[in-house]
Amino acid sequence: MACFARCVRLVIGVAGLLLLVSAASPSVAQQVNPTASAVKEQQLLQELNRVQGRVSIPDQRSGVLEQPAGREWREFRNVTLRWIGGIAILGMLAALVIFYLSRGMVRLQSGRSGRTIVRFSAFERFVHWMTATCFIILAISGLNVTFGRPLLLPLIGHEAFSEWSQWAKYVHNYLSFPFTIGVVLIFLMWIAGNIPNKADVDWIKRGGGIVGHDHPPAYRFNAGQKAIYWIVVIGGGLVAATGYALMFPFYLAGIEGMQLAQIVHSIVAMLFTAVMLAHIYIGTIGMEGAFEAMGSGTVDVNWAREHHSLWLEEENARDARPQPSVTAAE
């Protein structure tokens, strides 16, 4: 019994000593960093449901199989983007049909004169049609990424859809280069004529000849064409820059940056496509004589007088200038 009592007293003494040490240095546990990559609570919450493994290649980011922002991006791509594209494109098509049925084609009120004037050179028309052709193919192949699976796959089957999607991807990637060159050339060719001026304000107030039957004066490019120009330059620049960030992953940004690039790329492309539908409408069935400007490069003089009278006056004044005489050297 005496031995047992001594053992009990020893245990109690050791326990008391440990309590005294803990009380004397309460910050010992706080001073110890359990891990070199300790993070805050909010950071831990962001890492929930993150699926990450180990890889043998130098780029350790490839080991991330799933991260929280990826689920938000997937929701945007599969749901939100389809709504944006559907409303923008189908809404524009519906508006154009209603406008055509109510307004019809904008006709030449004075008829055709039989005389033409050069509006665009062969090089300008080449650049326009190269860029336009690339854009149409890029738009179709890009829309396949968003709407192909729910709309096209049930119609043609898995095998045909897989083959089409593979070729659409190749075409989308390679045609991006001539499209980008075209956008740059358009910017350089027509920047001088697309600076806003006072005539544009009056053109907008008077409906631009589209609403009603008024024909406000305009220079070579009216306010509507200037708007299309800047949409092509800015919108085309954005889709090109973000598209190349996606074509060459991890060179310019990480996975989060690429997700942001895809969001910007897809939204701008959808809105870009909707605006180009209106541009195609005006240039074809929306206005008599408009297609000839980019078709043959010439327009009827009466068309120029009704839609671009200030430009016609400049061209007539330039043609009326006396040419310098050349004398042969004696």
From TrEMBL:
Please give the Gene Ontology molecular function terms for this protein. Answer: formate dehydrogenase (NAD+) activity
- Membrane-topology descriptor: Multi-pass membrane protein
Pfam family of the protein (one): Ni_hydr_CYTB
EC?
Answer: 1.17.1.9
Arranged from A to Z, the UniProt key words for this protein are: Cell membrane, Electron transport, Heme, Iron, Membrane, Metal-binding, Oxidoreductase, Signal, Transmembrane, Transmembrane helix, Transport
Looking at the UniProt entry, the stretches that span the membrane are: 83-106, 126-147, 174-195, 227-251, 263-282
Keyword Cell membrane annotated:
yes
Q: Where is the Cytochrome b561 bacterial/Ni-hydrogenase domain?
A: 119-296
Question: Which family, according to UniProt?
Answer: Belongs to the formate dehydrogenase gamma subunit family.
Name under which the protein is recorded = Formate dehydrogenase subunit gamma
